[in-house]
Specification:
single chain, 150 residues, alpha+beta, Alpha-D-Glucose-1,6-Bisphosphate, Chain A, domain 4, 7-stranded antiparallel sheet, 7 strands
Length: 150
């Protein structure tokens, strides 16, 4: 069992454009499929409702850890917290990091989610598997979003 998910994608857009797609809460919501209540701010909890079909009754919540312009955006959250009868607030969270690097053709987006080793053992394999697949999908979503709106 791994502790860390890593994904990478080269996007055909300048770093500034990718940064906006990641950190403008409305744009993030479009590609991530969540309707957020307001802007991201370091140290604040971002909340909203998932808009992905079949998951609309789920809440989305993350605490913004870092916003280093055009370089790093990160937050912590409770991975695959979808059982509405469970209070996940007592569990450790994982750290999601989006790192941006300029390339000759655009921007390299490096995503990592770490801390799965601290998730309760009974939930850990499924949370890792579901988030690994979810991040694969989200990399396609941000790529399509940027291509459509550049």
């Amino acid at each position: 069992m791994q502790d860390r998910i890593e994904k990478r994608i080269e996007l055909k857009a300048p770093v500034s454009r990718v940064w906006r797609a990641l950190t403008d809460y409305r744009e993030f919501g479009e590609w991530f499929r969540v309707k957020l209540e307001g802007p991201f701010a370091v140290g604040r909890t971002a909340r909203g409702n998932i808009t992905y079909p079949g998951y609309e009754h789920y809440k989305w919540e993350a605490v913004v850890q870092a916003m280093e312009p055009e370089r790093l955006f990160s937050f912590t959250w409770h991975p695959y917290a979808i059982d509405l009868n469970v209070d996940y607030s007592k569990e450790p969270s994982t750290l999601v990091e989006f790192k941006l690097e300029k390339t000759p053709d655009g921007t390299l987006l490096l995503l990592s989610e770490s801390g799965f080793d601290k998730i309760p053992a009974g939930r850990r394999p499924e949370a890792f598997r579901m988030n690994d697949g979810g991040w694969t999908e989200q990399m396609k979503n941000i790529e399509a979003h940027i291509a459509a709106k550049t």
